[in-house]
């Protein structure tokens, strides 16, 4: 197998545990993903490596730049204060790029594939529970399907076919040892370093900003979306209420997601009969708020401003026609009154757009 496992697990420690941070008492989950393709596509270089923490992209390495690009502010601080450390793992990524890219033609040969687009992907997971217990797993995929995997908690390998079984036999002993060392030792070391930088830039109870957007649907119903963003910590209680009571019918929610500055955003929507608009509220509770927020629903702009839009449009058409008519009339009169000019062969009733301008 072309990939150097030692470098991979070391990179996993750097990019995963480097990117770990504390989000209250919930387990900390990080992952590193590699991808290597037979050819570059728009938005997909031939090789990429990405580090995530709780589904937030933290760093990205791309083959065409051969650099690690920070995606959050606190990693930029780390680069400035400990560039040797950061540069060390950029060097590791450059080496892993070379060896990981060898896996694509190797698997093509195993599957007797002579051409076409093919991609190899690897994801390494590391989780630290509330009790400090660590666990991990990795998943290796080819052309979008699971190929080979390992679960540290059970020690179980999964291989989908004989090609994967053969690769498992080649890497099993070394991978088990190095992956265990990565989770038990290296990850802990990087968590300590990461906690230092994260604590310097961490946010403390930033209250959410709550806005409401509304629109009228084709069937006459109204759709309202309550947008909640810029808050920290991530724990938040947001829901719809009807007459002051929790309401779930005809509602929809988006996943809680992180912003690049370390804060979070969330949104929830509801579809209602416009006659009952006054009965509903968007209810938000967060540690950064002194008291809960209850936001009223707005009158959809489409219904309130439709008459104004139509009126402005009609007035604009009338004004344009009047101006065009005056210009045409003056041009026609000027041609009649000028004795040096003969009679016009064609008197246009309306000038062209370019002439009017």
TrEMBL record:
Transmembrane segments: 306-330
Top-rank lineage group of the source organism: Eukaryota
Membrane topology: Single-pass type I membrane protein
GO cellular component term of the entry, any: extracellular space
Domain Ig-like: 207-296
Region of interest: Disordered: 337-357
Keywords annotated in UniProt: Disulfide bond, Glycoprotein, Immunity, Membrane, MHC I, Signal, Transmembrane, Transmembrane helix
InterPro entries in the cross-refs: Ig-like_dom, Ig-like_dom_sf, Ig-like_fold, Ig/MHC_CS, Ig_C1-set, MHC_class-I_related, MHC_I-like_Ag-recog, MHC_I-like_Ag-recog_sf
Matching Pfam families: C1-set, MHC_I
Span of the signal peptide: 1-24
Subcellular location, record wording: Membrane
Stored Gene3D superfamilies: Immunoglobulins, MHC class I-like antigen recognition-like
PROSITE patterns recorded: IG_LIKE, IG_MHC, PROKAR_LIPOPROTEIN
Heme recorded as keyword: no
Example GO biological process: immune response
UniProt similarity note: Belongs to the MHC class I family.
Name of protein: Class I histocompatibility antigen F10 alpha chain-like
């Amino acid at each position: 197998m072309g990939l150097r496992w030692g470098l991979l697990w070391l990179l996993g420690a750097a990019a995963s545990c480097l990117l770990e941070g504390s989000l209250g008492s919930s387990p900390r989950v990080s992952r590193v993903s590699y991808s290597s393709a037979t050819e570059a596509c728009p938005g997909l270089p031939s090789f990429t490596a990405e580090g995530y923490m709780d589904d937030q992209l933290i760093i990205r390495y791309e083959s065409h730049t051969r650099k690690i690009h920070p995606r959050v502010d606190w990693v930029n601080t780390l680069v400035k204060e400990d560039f040797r450390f950061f540069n060390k793992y950029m060097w590791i990524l450059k080496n892993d790029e070379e060896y990981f890219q060898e896996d694509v033609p190797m698997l093509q040969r195993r599957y007797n594939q002579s051409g076409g687009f093919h991609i190899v992907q690897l994801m390494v997971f590391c989780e630290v529970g509330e009790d400090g217990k660590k666990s991990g797993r990795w998943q290796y995929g080819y052309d979008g399907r699971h190929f080979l995997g390992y679960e540290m908690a059970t020690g179980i390998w999964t291989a989908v076919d004989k090609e994967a079984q053969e690769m498992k036999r080649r890497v099993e002993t070394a991978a088990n040892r190095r992956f265990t060392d990565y989770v038990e030792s290296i990850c802990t070391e990087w968590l300590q370093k990461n906690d230092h930088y994260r604590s310097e830039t961490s946010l403390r109870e930033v209250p959410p900003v709550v806005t409401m957007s509304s629109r009228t649907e084709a069937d006459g119903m109204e759709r309202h979306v309550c947008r909640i963003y810029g808050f920290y910590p991530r724990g938040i209680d947001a829901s719809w209420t009807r007459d002051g009571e929790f309401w779930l019918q005809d509602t929809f929610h988006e996943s809680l997601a992180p912003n690049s500055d370390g804060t979070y955003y969330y949104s929830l929507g509801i579809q209602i009969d416009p006659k009952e608009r006054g009965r509903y509220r968007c209810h938000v509770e967060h540690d950064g708020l002194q008291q809960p927020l209850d936001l009223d629903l707005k009158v959809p702009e489409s219904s309130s401003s439709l008459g104004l839009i139509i009126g402005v449009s009609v007035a604009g058409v009338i004004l344009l026609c009047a101006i065009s008519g005056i210009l045409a009339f003056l041009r026609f009169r000027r041609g009649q009154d000028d004795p040096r000019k003969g009679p016009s062969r064609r008197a246009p009733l309306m000038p062209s757009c370019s002439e009017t301008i």
